[in-house]
Design a protein that fits this description.
Helix content is 32%, strand content 18%. With 458 residues, the protein is α/β, with parallel strands linked by helices. The strands form 5 sheets. Strands 1, 2, 8, 9, 10, 11, 12 and 20 form an 8-stranded mixed sheet that branches. A 6-stranded mixed sheet has the order 6-15-16-17-14-18. The protein has 3 domains: 2-51 and 204-288 and 393-457, FAD/NAD(P)-binding domain (3-Layer(bba) Sandwich); 54-102 and 290-384, Polyamine Oxidase, Chain A, domain 2, CATH 3.90.660; 116-185, no CATH class. It has helices spanning 23-32, 81-87, 114-136, 146-157, 162-179, 207-218, 261-265, 277-285, 340-347, 351-365, 401-408, 437-457; strands spanning 14-19, 39-42, 54-55, 64-65, 70-71, 101-105, 201-202, 222-223, 228-232, 239-243, 250-257, 270-272, 287-289, 291-297, 307-312, 323-327, 333-339, 376-379, 392-394, 416-418. It contains 12 helices and 20 strands. One of its GO terms (molecular function) is oxidoreductase activity. It comes from Adineta steineri. Residues 24-451 form the Amine oxidase domain.
Length: 458
């Protein structure tokens, strides 16, 4: 242990404390296990995984992720690839392996007409060209939102054909779904910056379950139900950490903070002295989106057992119930992905009111079928979760990769380290991305290695 070689004026509890047992905290712990440093992970929740949470109780034999579902950029370079190969496969239905059909429909359940789809494709190509032009023009010193940049071209190209408009809006809402925010909040300068390249892999056992299995394999020391409320770095010889359930402080040499960006924005941890202005500015500037899942189980598969997804164009508002995953018998589950403003509005409703919205939608798109009453359901409300306050980060207007670099940069003379899906700074590789579980994992590895280098060289 590092401290055995140091003169101590007081007893240190650990060399390193990791705050948060999500992907970043888990990865940091695994790295520290390769050293002789003592450490512990403090987790405020009563489970491991954070926003990667698998519900294994509501739907009996079917695990359902209420947070992250896919390993993005799936392949041998992904730090979670080998773990998934060993620990992530269950002997049950695998969404990615079974094939199936995508039901792409208009607001009334009817097919989208080929000529309208072709016309919409041309319009979208022009919109993407406009975004590429703006993002690639280094003379544009001031950022704008994606909505601002494409709005004029959009209005010029959209004609009287309402179905063409709905198809174009369906694609625009796909951007919003990916980022978890509306286009008027997203940076046009950072259009297509840091997106996850490559294919995706559905985690059949549940992403939260996979992270729990990784923890079990490594026997990581984690204290659950331990909420960190105060971090004091005013003494240069140690860091004092206060938790909600303790009257005395936990002492350490280094700390890795992996709590969600939403919690940093809400100041759920008090820092003494306060965080430097540049760190605070990065926290405030980075975007933070919302994606919720409305999971509903039915007594039968009335939508058709071969259907894997429902993609829906809407007349009411762009992106309303645009994307649904369909799990076939015996699960008979629909998972509605809702994002941005629509997701926030739904969070204000009761469960029964949300169910009514869903049933009205299903009856509208399946007018000739009997839609039975659901037998089970579960709705996430991530923006109301006091340990998340949202889902994942994005490039808001005026933010950029330097914002992420600032979020990842150490504070308190290098003693406080930062990690998480929002803090995976650009390493210059073609595979760099952010806002994913595996990028949170990578950021945790980076922070732990930095601490090891610091303490070994001191």
């Amino acid at each position: 242990m590092f401290l055995k070689n140091c003169l101590k004026v007081m007893t240190m509890d650990f060399d390193v404390v990791i705050v948060g047992a999500g992907a970043a905290g888990i990865a940091a712990a695994i790295e520290l296990q390769k050293t002789n440093l003592s450490f512990v992970v403090l987790e405020a929740r009563n489970y491991i995984g954070g926003r990667a949470f698998t519900d294994r109780e509501t739907f009996i034999s079917t695990p359902v992720d209420l947070g992250a579902s896919w390993i993005h950029s799936f392949g041998s370079r992904n730090p979670l690839y080998d773990y998934y190969q060993r620990l992530g496969k269950d002997d049950q239905f695998d969404y990615d392996d079974e094939g199936g059909d995508a039901l792409i429909i208009d607001y009334n359940g009817r097919p989208l007409l080929p000529h309208a789809r072709q016309r919409a494709k041309l319009v979208l190509s022009r919109l993407y060209d406009r975004l590429d032009e703006f993002a690639g023009n280094n003379c544009n010193s001031d950022d704008q939102s994606i909505e601002q940049v494409i709005q004029t071209v959009y209005e010029q190209l959209i004609e009287s054909d309402e179905q063409v408009k709905r198809i174009v809006d369906l694609s625009r809402s796909g951007m919003e779904q990916y980022e978890g925010s509306n286009l008027n909040n997203l940076s046009a300068k950072c259009w297509e910056t840091g997106g996850a390249p490559g294919g995706d892999r559905w985690v059949s056992c549940g992403y939260g379950t996979l992270l729990q299995r990784i923890c079990k394999e490594h026997n990581i020391p984690i204290r659950l139900n331990t909420l960190v409320t105060h971090i004091d770095t005013s003494d240069t010889t140690r860091i004092a950490i206060t938790t909600s359930d303790s009257s005395s402080a936990l002492l350490c040499h280094r700390i890795i903070i992996t709590i969600p960006l939403g919690c940093l924005k809400r100041n759920t941890i008090i820092f003494e002295p306060p965080l430097p202005e540049w760190k605070r500015e990065a926290i405030d500037l980075m975007g933070y989106g919302l994606m919720n899942k409305l999971v509903v189980q039915f007594p039968d598969c009335f939508w058709g057992s071969s259907t894997r997804t429902i993609i829906h164009a809407c007349t009411v508002r762009r992106g309303r119930f645009r994307f649904t995953i369909c799990l076939p018998p015996p699960s008979n589950i629909l998972i509605f992905f809702v994002t941005g403003t629509f997701a926030k509005e739904l969070e204000t409703l009761t469960d029964n009111e949300i169910l009514l919205e869903i049933m009205t939608f299903l009856q509208n798109i399946f007018p000739k079928r009997t839609v039975p009453n659901p037998i089970r359901y579960k709705f996430s409300r991530w923006s109301q979760d006091p340990l998340a306050y949202g889902s994942y980060s994005n490039f808001a207007v005026h933010s950029n990769p330097q914002t992420i670099a600032d979020l990842a940069k150490e504070t308190a003379d290098g003693r406080v380290h930062w990690a998480g899906e929002h803090a995976n700074s650009n390493d210059g590789s073609e595979n760099w991305c952010y806002a994913c579980v595996h990028t949170a994992f990578t950021s945790g590895q980076r922070a732990a290695k930095a601490i090891q280098n610091q303490l070994n060289n001191s």
